[in-house]
């Protein structure tokens, strides 16, 4: 971008920063003020106050994110007019904010840049948390800002997000966590098809699971990262709470269906509580819920969101074997995320090694000698030749960092394959549900 355009972009970002300072302050005053209205009344009011251009649905999602956490216990009951005045200020400031975001959008459009900028979003999230005087928790503030940014993007372009479906899967939940509710979501049947949808341009971004803290890697996604030209532009860590969902009570369950990974994450619980039930591996957790709905004695292991979406009762909540059960998801697209700096970027690579003594050691030395921290290394059959392996590496740093560039140049000298999969902010959006 030319200097002129950059100045214009920065001017609008400065204006957004000034508005955010006020919004964060007002949101905190808002949760300390109880006008006595219920959620539906508040949502109807913000739609009434809405001066545009944000949609009513976006404003309501912003307020829902705030109300989800509830009023602060120290909230003072006050006359509704005082709360209305606060709401009016918040809504007006958000409307000014979105106009500046719109100006930025025009600049991006004129320069062929993407509206979605995961690095700037990470900066906005860090900024609002740093400004936050409380009592709103930072996590709630991030959920609110997720919806603010989602609404801004939606006014520029209704981005299409393809995810491993059907609706209400954990991947759907992770996608909303990253992009907010104002964009368009498209459930896709398989992981390769999610990649294909983005490669063809039918969708702007794709969201796929990559690893779970209990069950390990999702091989399909790893294989697709090797084959595809898409980059990783963001990541989401989602805490997973599995539920046993069925029309029948626990004693009557003879079959449990889910995706193999989800069954694996609940293996001990299932063995202890319904040892005689047959475990059946199906294509997705949401499909398991749909089929459990129609058959007595059949249960699904899936999210509370899918029980709600498909209207099937939850028999038992939280049946995962470990409480710290977290799945990491990747957002893939054609965008290259810019560096965030300060050790807050992550880079993913895939390499192969020569079949010779010391090949792995030489590779590791290329990183260690430059002070680059590897956060993960995992091998996987290359599927090209028997006993030939790919190594998937995550490191702390960005592709544009000089030491990362030098390490990659070093690797290119002795590894048959070195493929950069993406550099992206090593932070995660707050979980939505
Ligand atoms: O600063 C930008 O680049 C913007 O487009 C604004 C904004 C925002 O609303 O704060 C919107 C979308 C981007 O993904 C990041 C930030």
From TrEMBL:
It catalyses: chorismate = prephenate; prephenate + H(+) = 3-phenylpyruvate + CO2 + H2O. GO terms for molecular function: prephenate dehydratase activity. SMART domains: CM_2 (SM00830). Pathway: Amino-acid biosynthesis; L-phenylalanine biosynthesis; phenylpyruvate from prephenate: step 1/1; Metabolic intermediate biosynthesis; prephenate biosynthesis; prephenate from chorismate: step 1/1. Coiled coil: none annotated. It comes from the Bacteria. Its main location: cytoplasm. Gene3D superfamilies: 3.30.70.260, Chorismate mutase, Periplasmic binding protein-like II. Residues 70-160 form the Chorismate mutase domain. Residues 348-426 form the ACT domain. Residues 160-334 form the Prephenate dehydratase domain. PROSITE patterns: ACT (PS51671), CHORISMATE_MUT_2 (PS51168), PREPHENATE_DEHYDR_2 (PS00858), PREPHENATE_DEHYDR_3 (PS51171). It is found in: Cytoplasm. Keywords: Amino-acid biosynthesis, Aromatic amino acid biosynthesis, Cytoplasm, Isomerase, Lyase, Multifunctional enzyme, Phenylalanine biosynthesis. InterPro entries: ACT-like_dom_sf (IPR045865), ACT_dom (IPR002912), Chor_mutase/pphenate_deHydtase (IPR008242), Chorismate_II_sf (IPR036263), CM_dom_sf (IPR036979), CM_II_prokaryot (IPR002701), Preph_deHydtase (IPR001086), Preph_deHydtase_CS (IPR018528). Its EC number is 4.2.1.51, 5.4.99.5. The keyword Cell cycle does not apply. The keyword Lyase applies. Catalyzes the Claisen rearrangement of chorismate to prephenate and the decarboxylation/dehydration of prephenate to phenylpyruvate. NCBIfam families: PRK11898.1. This is Bifunctional chorismate mutase/prephenate dehydratase. It comes from Coraliomargarita algicola. The gene is pheA.
């Amino acid at each position: 971008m030319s200097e002129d355009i950059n100045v214009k972009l920065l001017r609008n970002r400065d204006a957004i920063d000034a508005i955010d300072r006020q919004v964060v302050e007002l949101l905190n005053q808002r949760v300390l003020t109880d006008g006595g209205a219920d959620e539906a009344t508040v949502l109807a009011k913000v739609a009434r106050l809405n001066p545009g251009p944000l949609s009513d649905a976006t404003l309501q999602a912003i307020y829902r994110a705030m109300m989800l956490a509830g009023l602060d216990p120290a909230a003072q009951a006050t006359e509704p007019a005082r709360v209305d005045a606060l709401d009016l200020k918040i809504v007006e400031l958000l409307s000014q904010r979105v106009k500046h975001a719109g100006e930025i959008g025009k600049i991006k459009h004129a320069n062929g840049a993407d509206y979605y900028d995961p690095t700037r979003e990470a900066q906005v999230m860090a900024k609002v948390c740093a400004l936050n005087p409380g009592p709103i928790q930072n996590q709630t503030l991030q959920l609110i800002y997720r919806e603010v940014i989602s609404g801004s993007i939606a006014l520029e372009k209704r981005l299409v997000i393809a995810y491993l479906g059907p609706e209400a899967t954990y991947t759907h939940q992770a996608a909303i966590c990253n992009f907010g509710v104002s964009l368009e979501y498209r459930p896709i049947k398989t992981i390769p098809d999610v990649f294909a949808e983005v490669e063809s341009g039918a969708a702007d971004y794709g969201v796929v699971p990559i690893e779970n803290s209990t069950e390990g890697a999702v091989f399909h996604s790893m294989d697709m990262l090797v084959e595809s030209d898409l980059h990783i532009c963001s990541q989401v860590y989602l805490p997973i709470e599995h539920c046993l969902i069925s029309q029948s009570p626990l004693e009557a369950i003879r079959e449990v269906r889910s995706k193999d990974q989800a069954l694996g994450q609940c293996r001990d619980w299932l063995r202890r509580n319904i040892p005689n039930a047959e475990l059946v591996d199906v294509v997705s957790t949401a499909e398991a819920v749909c089929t459990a709905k129609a058959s007595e004695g059949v249960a699904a292991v899936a999210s509370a969101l899918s029980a709600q979406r498909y209207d099937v009762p939850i028999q038992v909540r939280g049946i995962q074997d470990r409480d710290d059960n977290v799945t990491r998801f990747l957002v893939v697209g054609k965008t290259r995320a810019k560096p965030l700096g300060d050790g807050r970027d992550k880079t993913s690579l895939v390499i192969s090694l020569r079949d010779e003594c010391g090949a792995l050691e030489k590779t590791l030395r290329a990183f260690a000698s430059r002070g680059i921290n590897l956060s993960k290394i995992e091998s996987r059959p290359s599927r090209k030749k028997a006993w030939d392996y790919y190594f998937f590496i995550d490191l702390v740093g960005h592709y544009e960092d000089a030491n990362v560039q030098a390490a990659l140049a070093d690797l290119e000298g002795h590894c048959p394959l070195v493929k950069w999969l993406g550099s992206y902010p090593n932070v995660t959006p707050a979980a939505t549900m």
